[in-house]
Amino acid sequence: MTSGSVKAGSIEVADAAFVGQAVPDDRALRWRKHSRTMQAFISASYCVDAACMGLLAGAGALPWKVPLVYLVLFAACSGFFTFVLLRSPHKRFSDPYLTVPQMLVASTIQFGFMLWVPSIGVPVLMGLFIVVGFGGLRLNLPQAGLASLWLTVGVSVVMGLRGEDLSIPLATATQRFISGLWISSVVARAIMLGQYGAQLRKALVKRNDTLARTMEIAERLASRDGLTGALNRGSILKAIDGERLRMMRKGQPFSVVLLDLDHFKRINDGFGHLVGDQVLRRVVAEVDAQLRATDQLGRYGGEEFLLLLGDCGDEARGRQVVERILEAIGGYAWEGVADGLKVTSSAGLAIARPDETVNQLLSRADHGLYQAKNAGRNRLCVG
């Protein structure tokens, strides 16, 4: 059995359910969630740095105005960016997270503090890793180039002007402990930021997989007959055309079969169209059960079906497959569908020739079907 045919449309129903349950595009909600998370992380990171500066001020290594100025500056900047981001539609900006402006502002303040208070220049300089890690989550290549240029210029200026003065408070045991705590916090935040980035990548991979699955299912559903789950007319004809091209390249012949349910109008008129629909679905299931992996089944129109028997250029083999199908359809317990119901079918088989078109091939199969019906139905004739 091949992917081109399905049992009573069961795969199609499952696929339709999957598509129906697919989560709609909630990009704006995800953006708000990620924005809140990142802004909270940025604010917390600023508070950690300010707290470490405050501890150093308490230990006599800094004047108190240093942590206060740092806290006020970053509180103002973080508050401003958070307000702008969460109060404005995310599609308003080409950079919906304002990554570049936030990086530029944060790094500028860091550079300023290294120039103003070089005695804490080492941990402040290390804090740039947090800024870079934040930007690495969102920057595209041109933005990354711009940010790298700015950071290179800023660090070069700081090193040129105050490089020899950059240090870390180590005068007392308390200062050494606080300085070690500050550096450890920088490393810890860098790790946390990396983990958050890893989670974002995993989520992106998962969404891409879901999208690919949804697209695959949508394409599959578009190629199937809505009632029976068999390939629709266009898809089965496309499959036959592809098989013909393969035959031209490799010399491997194939066959097609036109299968028509006998007196199907009588079934619809006598038992109703709902029973007629059940018959069509059941026929597809019975045919599908008899097909090989290289075969495909499509609904050609109404109660007529078209079979592609791949790698089948021998009449005897073709007859064997089709006669099994006719026996399966005729021998099914149709009384279970409706009292007094009997279903048989007729078929026309045509083996492909290298010098004919698909239309000519189908014409011969149709001629075989015509002969089968004229000969009394419930049989196979070769066209």
Detailed description of the structure:
This protein has 383 residues and is an alpha+beta fold. It is 65% helix and 8% strand. The chain has a five-stranded mixed beta sheet with strand order 2-3-1-4-5, with helices on both faces. Strand 4, helix 13 (358-374) and strand 5 (380-382) form a beta-alpha-beta unit. Helix 2 runs antiparallel to helix 3 (65-87). The chain is rod-shaped and about 110 Å long. The protein starts with 9 loop residues before the first helix and ends with a strand. 34% of the residues are buried.
Number of strands: 5
| Total helical segments | 13
Largest β sheet strand count, sense and barrel closure = 5 strands, mixed
General shape: rod-shaped
**Termini separation:** 25 Å
Portion in helices: 55-70%
Low-pLDDT parts are: 1-25
Mean pLDDT, nearest integer? 85
Q: Summarize the helix and strand pattern as letters.
A: HHHHHHHHHEHHEEHEHE
Rounded to an integer in angstroms, the radius of gyration calculated over CA atoms is: 36 Å
Oligomerization status of the protein chains: single chain
Please identify the structural class as seen in this structure.
Answer: alpha+beta
| Percent in strands | 5-15%
**Biggest β-sheet: strands ordered side by side in the sheet:** 2-3-1-4-5
